[in-house]
């Protein structure tokens, strides 16, 4: 429709206008988020972890007393009755959750507190044998009262289960989530079939943004709580697909960019930013060239929570968004900012 000479002339005019009329003509498209905005977003995710930890610690009750201990299989009990010291008994809770006591026989105590066990035994003796008995249950050996907390918490390990507690209270025993915590907490519970435990999933994103009552499930003795690490890298800027991508293996920056669909047409391949948290304070920002990354001069392995940001070449973006139309011999020039997916 137009000769090459005409096209070059119009482009020259546009670039001249761009240089002399900065107030009337945009110098380049805002085709991607600013680097500082992406860093702020990553900081926001860490603020989510901080907010969750604050909720964990605020939900913790005062230290439980011996009467709050939840009895379980294998615990060794000493049961004494003030009005009948001769009935004092030492018994271990069986696999079926019961202890055998004089006169009353088998008493199911698994899953109840020592205080509840005292009340239950008192009522059984009061029915036939004693008038207003006073029973004391002492846990001589605690065997069953343990939970396991693993993964991205500050203090993983086996922790005593001394009283009924929620997920929040259990995680607080692990001193809260670490900065590497992923999005899903797993709670594994042993059921009647040891080969097929039940696994519950709790969404940390929902937990961080107001969820809690239905997510703050009750934890039972023997539960295993696992907080996986995040394992992801975030890509933004002049790429075809921006977003978070999982780290399934050791990955380099070129591989991450390929996972993001490759460079956009307006990318500045000589200006790639690697943003890496140093565990507090300002993050480390390294400027890299794609050519150096390909040749191995800058072979950098991507780590969890890294941010890869590809800057925009303003000249490329301007040309890529340029639109020239013709109608009835009248030439029209327009511009539309490039878009990524």
Characterize the structure shown:
The chain has a five-stranded mixed β-sheet with strand order 7-6-12-9-10. The chain is built from eight helices and 19 strands. The longest helix is centred in the first third of the chain and has 24 residues, at 35-58. Helix content is 26%, strand content 29%. The radius of gyration is 33 Å and the shape is rod-shaped. The protein has 341 residues and is of the alpha+beta class. The protein has three domains: 4-30 and 232-335, Outer membrane lipoprotein wza fold like, CATH 3.10.560.10; 54-62 and 145-227, Roll (Outer membrane lipoprotein wza fold like); 71-141, 2-Layer Sandwich (wza like fold), CATH 3.30.1950.10. It has helices spanning 4-20, 35-58, 114-128, 167-173, 204-208, 253-259, 290-295, 314-320, and strands at residues 76-81, 89-92, 98-101, 105-108, 135-141, 146-151, 157-160, 165-166, 184-189, 198-203, 218-219, 224-227, 232-237, 243-246, 267-276, 284-288, 307-312, 322-327, 330-335. The two termini are 31 Å apart. Helix 2 (35-58) packs across helix 4.
What best-fitting shape do the alpha-carbon axes yield? Answer: rod-shaped
CATH class of the largest domain: Alpha Beta
- As a percent range, the share of helical residues equals 25-40%
Query: Number of domains in the coordinates?
Result: 3
Number of contiguous helices:
8
CATH homologous superfamily label of the largest domain: Outer membrane lipoprotein wza domain like
Widest sheet: strand ordering: 7-6-12-9-10
Structural class: alpha+beta
